[in-house]
Give the backbone structure.
Amino acid sequence: MKRTVRDIDVTGKRVIVRCDFNVPTDSDGKITDETRIVGALPTIRYLTEQGAKTILMSHMGRPDGEVDMKYTLRPVAESLSAHLGRDVLFAASPAVVDDEVRAAAAGLEQGQVMLLENLRFRKEETKNGADFAKELAGLADIWVNDAFGTAHRAHASTAGIADLLPAVSGFLIEKEVKFLGDAVEHPKRPLVAVLGGAKVGDKIPVIENLLTKVDSLLIGGGMAYTFFKARGYEIGASILDEKNIALAASLEKTAKEKGVALVLPIDVKAAAAFDNDAESAYYDADDIPADRMGLDIGPKSAEMFARIIKSAGTVIWNGPMGVFEMPSFAEGTKAVASALASSGAVTVIGGGDSAAAVEQFGFGDKMTHISTGGGASLEFLEGRTLPGIAVIPDKGE
Ligand code: AMP
């Protein structure tokens, strides 16, 4: 268990918190989804209630080390002020840290909150530059990491700074580590993983790690076609990860040896073109016509997956079952989301597309945990140590 803000005395201290305020904005710079801001509130509220002097920092978008006001964090400061019901000071310096910002940080009163400008206006941030980490650390007495979305990156604000200040996690990282960690390491069994998405290649380390943990592994989405090919099925014009066909065959073999049920779709919805309005029909998985491409799992597969999900103790889901962005090929993903929502299992959704799908279909509040980090949750499922979490000492250390 990592040390958290509860394990350190923050009263009267200047506490710098790495948050994930990488929120989407429209062409007028208006925030279109405040989920990440809302996710950061419990830690910020705790710090203000404890009488800390809170300094928040985050990146937004990819300004690549250049000052680009399209990515200013000013709208985030405004949103935070509204949510917290108190004025959040915005340190508008494009240099992120300068004398004015240092003076503002030094002048903070207990309970006050200030937000720095976009960390990625400085190119040293993503390079984990020691000088920039020092500038950030110089503003505060304690560092809190609460940005799970960037915990898989070793940047100045997510890792380098931990060498210079006492380091603890915020409540969001605590929650992510607890739910993702327990799901993989101490699950209520049977443990079922559902994997989808476009390519096998991107998910190999996840499959390899999960094969050592799960009771069943359900594979849908574009990934399934490489497994079909490995079995010798005709997959028509479906997406194929050519260089990983042999690997798919060996993963099936490993699953068998480990007694893991690796379950592939038994039917698919295949279309004449990659187009929502293309002519399409259902086919058995081993009977896809040469001129068709599979773009979703079929209803028999959806029912089979739902049955397995319903008898699970824990379900981990990452990746859509089909091209869910197109309504004609969203049914399989919706069926899996619905099965998770109505199961009594602990349900943990990896970030990214599956999180978006769950919200899109209105099942968000039915899941035990929806991860806020796409890349980070995937690396967690790969069994990798995330640098932004590794730098936080364990409780009692
Ligand atoms: P990933 O980023 O690997 O999780 O892949 C997500 C993407 O996979 C989504 O944009 C889906 O549209 C896409 N996808 C899912 N199933 C298929 C399929 N059968 N053929 C092509 N793309 C797919």
Observations:
- The pocket of adenosine monophosphate is lined by residues 197-199, 202, 221-222, 239, 294-295, 319-320, 322-323, 325, 353 (CB under 6 Å).
- The domain at 5-174 is CATH 3.40.50.1260 (Rossmann fold).
- The chain has 13 helices and 15 strands.
- The longest strand covers residues 14-18.
